[in-house]
Amino acid sequence: MLNILLFMEEKQIPYRRISGDLAASADITGVMTAGSLHTPVPGEAYAYLAAPGEGPLSGALPEQAGVIIYPPGDSSDRNSGQTTRDTCCRIQILDPSYTAQAMEAMLLQELRRLSVRQEELLRSEYIDLVSMVSRGASLHELEQFGRRLLQNPLMITDESFMLLAYTQNQEVDDPVWNEIIQTSYSPMKLVNQTDVNAFWERLENSSVPLFVDEEAFKGCRKRVVARIKIGSKTKGYIALLEIENKITSLDLYVLQMLAEVCAVKISESNTISAAVGQMKSEFTKDLLLGNMQSEAMIRNRAESMHLQFREKNAVAGVCGEDNRIYIGRYLDDLRQFFLRTADLCIYTFDGTTGYFILSFRSQKAYQSLLSDEVDHYMQTHQMLCALSHPVEGLSALARAFREARRLCGLFSHLRHISPRHLYPYEKYMLNLLLEHAYTMDDRQLYRCSSFEKLLETDLREKSSYIETLRCYFRHNQNVGETADSLYVHRNTINYRLNKIREILEEDFDDSQVRLNLQLSIMSYDMKL
After folding, report:
1. What range does the domain containing 110 cover?
2. Quick check: is 432 in a domain?
3. What mean pLDDT do residues 153-170 have?
4. Does the predicted model carry a pTM greater than 0.70?
5. Among 227, 188, 238, 223, which residue's Cα sits nearest to residue 205?
């Protein structure tokens, strides 16, 4: 297959485009003239060399794409060819030395040369590539092989534009390339910027690599992209950047050959990953549900999957802030986030909540999970996280799972008392006890008579005694801090506290009275 654009550029043949998208029709496999008409072969693309005065060819070009090349100085009506399909592009040669006969000879010669060279590549380089894959070569090794053949830098991504491999042994003065390298993926702004003239749709339907339109990245290097596909599904992309040498039609063939071999490697990796992932998922479920009682059995299964658990382990349950937020697509991102702190992270997902087993070297490492950074991450991504207390021994993870799951079930109540997005078990254990008492249908157990008396007074007198007492307890019975939090004078707080004592006819400085009131306020705030 010969790329007309590259051919014109290499031979320095001046031309102008009359109509159609030359980039979409540039790849041809044959040449036709008025004197050499033949029935087009399905799947092939031809260049038709028009004779002087000849109008656009009607019905002779193949269905998919083609290009009509007019001789220089021809003034025939270019718009007369209404039967010519929109997929066909028309151009005119501007140099009179390039006659139809000369162009036909040059194009046929170049097509023959490419055919011979492609056969040579199939007999040598392609066999080496396949052999490399059979020996377990990595994508980076395949990229290095392609770099040697193409003499220009390469980049390989998966279908979500995450960077898998790239040429690392040279400096590339291209801002688009460097941004992708720095972020390890192609940001969506670059993906959208690439989509000039429906680039991604054209690539999806193309069997050959396509050049990115120059309008997409003005002033940047020329680049061509091939689709890595498994069956009919796109599984990645491989891009070639024009840095050291001009990209040729043969390079496009080599790039496509490389994409097909990369597809084999990615398919192999996907199969292995899926199998290992399934094993880990089943192991995680058995571990959390307590289906393995023996610590030795658990350790043995973990070692068979190369999972190295540490001294401290915990379970985090993560779900969306509300039912409209589906976190299934973010599970791997969450795993990467937890791995900033944890030494190991595996997870399972029940369709609503992701449960992550986290393993740490020490208690200090676990404590770092309680930071504002984790709470901020969950808030930014509209998620809620319940964290069990750390346990020792893998069989104890079933208990940690129960803690996290119970906390997740309590989110609707906890949100009433705290706007945070991270809920550690140790801090909210009392809330779980209250919720358990509530399910036992014994509300009076933790709604003491003193609290009910204050509640009635607030409702009747429009006072703020419960709010004052809540803040007073929250600030460790410090009058000054309570006043600051409520934006009132400390004398106002002292007055309210004395009134509360009068109403209750008991002193809440007494530890038992204070505990009853605190539990009652907590259950009231949880709206149990």
Report:
1. 100-135
2. yes
3. 86
4. no
5. 227
